[in-house]
# Entry
Amino acid sequence: MVSRVIPVDPFDLVIFGGTGDLARRKILPGLYRRYLDGQMPGEACIIGVARGDMDTDGYRAFVETSVREFVAKKWCDAKILKAFIERISFVQLDATGDQGWDELKAATKPDRVQAFYFSVGPSLFGPIAERLHTHEIAGPDARIVVEKPFGHDEASARALNETLARHFAEHQIYRIDHYLGKETVQNLMALRFGNMLFEPLWNAQYVDHIQITVAETVGVEGRGSYYDKSGAMRDMVQNHLMQLLCLTAMEPPSKFEPNAVRDEKLKIIRALDQVEPGDMVRGQYRGNDEVASYLEDAETDASMTESFIAMKLHISNWRWNGTPFYLRTGKRLRGRVSEIVVRFKEPPHSIFEEDTGQTANELSIRLQPNEGMDLKVTIKEPGPGGMRLIDVPLDMTFADALGEEAAEAPDAYERLIMDVIRGNQTLFMRGDEVEAAWAWTDPIIAGWEKRADKPKLYDAFSTGPEEALMLLHKDGRRWREIR
Ligand code: BG6
# Structure
């Protein structure tokens, strides 16, 4: 790993839900990588908290297993791993009762940066925040990290904001959307605001439309009971796709700092028009010989929940008036692709013959996999035979341009946890932003519930329902292929 980092100040990180899936897969392996990279200082302490019967030795063994499972072998250095594990302890605690809180108090130091990571179900956010306060565990430099789902509609998000605000100030609350920690998402801001090339063209005058796709090959296996209450709209659009949309569409903030960025994102959410029923397609995957259908995964005979959604959005402001944004996301699709595609307009007049095949420029920003961007430009086809035009990509795959190691970006969670310790909220959602995103989402969901719209079925590992293709075809456009 190439070390280009400055160590953060010593901190105590308390992980509620310390033995949960997120801790095992993301938080603990991520912390190890930051330790290995020299960013997590030797004096830092990680305190795992859970209700189950365990002690520090047992938890250290759990952490070691997680690291070995989720960190590439080449980074698992036995000596460093041992030193990392020594930074770890465990407190058994009942989040809704009084047991364990005194032990937790004894284990943390209120005179240093304290981060309390709520990697638990949302019903525990309030009780934990309250007890951290009443047991006087949280010091002046304490901050809390809250995982999604942050509410399931505007009212519940507002109630949750109010509960947290009783015990912590807004600058202490870090609402995670892990998409904001993805390297290429941050790169989107570098691309837009660190270059002169694109920004002058980044508006309705020059952009024909924008596509945002987050396609997954996985189904909802194992998460059926959560997912069936949520669906693609609540699970992905209200948060991750909304964030991508905001960063793509927002005005340049005056500074790359938390409130300047979040103010601009909020303006975009508030400028979103409601979506007409005809501008939206919801789908549910079928099963085949190899994989179960959505209904089987969700363990229900009948469900109206969508595992796929595609929609056409309009942003009512000067910059984007007339440029549609097409969003789609779904499970069990043909490929795992997350990308933002900016399709520019065709030149106003072609000086070449009609049939030259000239097309428009297209900038695509690949979030995953194969992070990078490419810009489709039109050139003359080499060779004799007249002036024939073809499209070629100016491809910038980060791994090619920067080398495999430099391009090996930290996982989103690593970056975000270090930002919590540094006290930088730029890549976290502010309370009003989350509420505004729900305020836009709620009437759309209420609309399809009232109409009792049934999701359209689509084949597993396809590109989604036919109707989603039509959404663009009827506008004379087409989706980028999901490969
Ligand atoms: C989560 C959703 O927030 O994001 C999951 O709940 C989804 O349903 C996941 O699979 C996608 O994240 P990533 O980083 O794999 O694109």
